[in-house]
Amino acid sequence: MMSTENSPQTNSLAGVAAARVREPGSAPLGSGLEARGVHAWFGSHLALENVSLDFAAGTVTALIGPSGCGKSTFIRTLNRMHEFIPSAAMAGEVLLDGKDIYASGTDVTRIRLQIGMVFQKPNPFPSMTIGENVLAGLKLAQIKYDGNKDDLMEETLVRAGLWNEVKDRLGAHAGGLSGGQQQRLCIARSLAVNPKVLLMDEPCSALDPGSTLRIEDTISQLSKTMTIVIVTHNMQQAARVSDYTAFFLADGGPGQMIEVGPTNEMFSRPKDERTENYVSGRFG
Amino acid sequence: MSSTLIERVLPQKRALTTKPRPSDVAFRSVLNVMSYSSLLILAAIGGFLAFRGFGAFKENGLGFITHAEWSSLVGDNGKEISSFGLGAMITGTLIISTIALVIGVPLSVLTALYLTFYAPERLRRLLVTVVDLMASFPSILYGIWGFIVLSPMATYWAKLIFKYLGWIPFLSVPTPAFDRSPFLAGIVLSIMIIPIVTSVSREIFAQTPLERIQAAYALGATRWGMIRAVALPFGASGVVGGAMLGLGRALGETVAVYSVLNIVFKINWHVLYGYGGNIASMIVQKFGEASFTEKKALLAAGFVLFVMTLLVNMVANTVVSRAVKSGK
To answer: N or C: more exposed end of chain B, with fewer CB within 10 A?
Structure first.
């Protein structure tokens, strides 16, 4: 993918999307992430009904839809963060490289190492320095890292697009960074444990437009090496960064996935009228 | 520049007043009296102790705090010869309280961590009730239990500790007398401070920001990894505050210590050795049979204890409220 700065974005993205088009719901991928008939409950309230969605390795998929449509709930089922909410329950399967991450006998911490997550609000550990934050995952998951930790720190900060801004103050506390920098630090922190998939739950909603652009640039860079799923309220953002877009809607009942397709098609000629109404700004 | 400056005429700021209704005035004055009354009572107690004990301070000078001897004899001429020093009791109080903290705080913090992050909801509620119940348990019962049940066990443990760690100066004993030691009193006290330290720690841990907990888990953290990286740094100052509130209770504990400790007016650094001191229980022991001068000295001792406890509690409250407010 070309750098986003010197190319007309929509055109280049359309080209990228076309090159990667793969019919969702087709035969198992074997690699990448697949959701199969995912349902989610909070207590007795069914929040999400029967979502099946494939995320091919190396693609960026945007989940869009109005508030309360279950897209955040869905993304949280993909790395088993959903179950942290008391009384939360789920049904269905989520396959990572063909293996169900909800299968009994699965080590959840291993799953979360392979499927990283970036949250809406930047959440670096305030008691740690910038450098310690980047390497926190290794410590938290008790991983013995054989390579040079300084190199890993630099590499991940470069990939997250933060290196130049923090290289002289890796020993400073993370709380002193701006919101956008903190969010990129959180991305770097997720990258340090080398996940296959990165889930991003509205990563830019708390940030200014400048920081948002930098993070979108980071996402395009990362998508060369990993699978990315991003929840966003911002349709322009979905158009800018994603190869595929899935539209979620809760029409009075539980959230459902209405439609998924290559991003350029979803925005230019969606099949479902409700998608059309949403992407053209008639509601939401 | 200054030539372009136009002087603005601003109006006088107006006083923002309201005429309170009589009912409000009445209610407010009642509340005022109520809330200041506890302050007044505290001041009255402190003032009384200081006033009545003043004579003892004056007669014994600084020795009242530093000397270990406490004696009051009536001489042949019917005159009282007395010397009062709190040295042994003050050091004893501090030693016992330290032992209580060393044993009680880790237990409480681990309990709080379990209750906050591990226990299933039902068990958690049950345990919280039980721990709170421990706080309302009369201290004489702890004392009796400590004397009858715990004492033989603690004596055995003390022997074990002495056998393997006796080379450490304060764990040695001059003669093998392990009964009714500061060690035993410290254990009893440690159990008594568990409720307060646990509940303060639990409240702080429960406030750990969810987003940070999720951040840790999303990085593949084990539960213990999350606690180490997120909950403990967040709760540290609250735990310190809770420990100091526990210390406040330990310093003033009377009956339980009185029932298990062999009170002797001699400074004892050997924590396993069978005698020690504690201001509060010493007052209980002496007060009934005290002469007029000794009573004065006991009230002065009470004043010392009053100041110590007040200081510790004030520091603790500041630490706790800061921990809660800052939320880090």
So the answer is: N
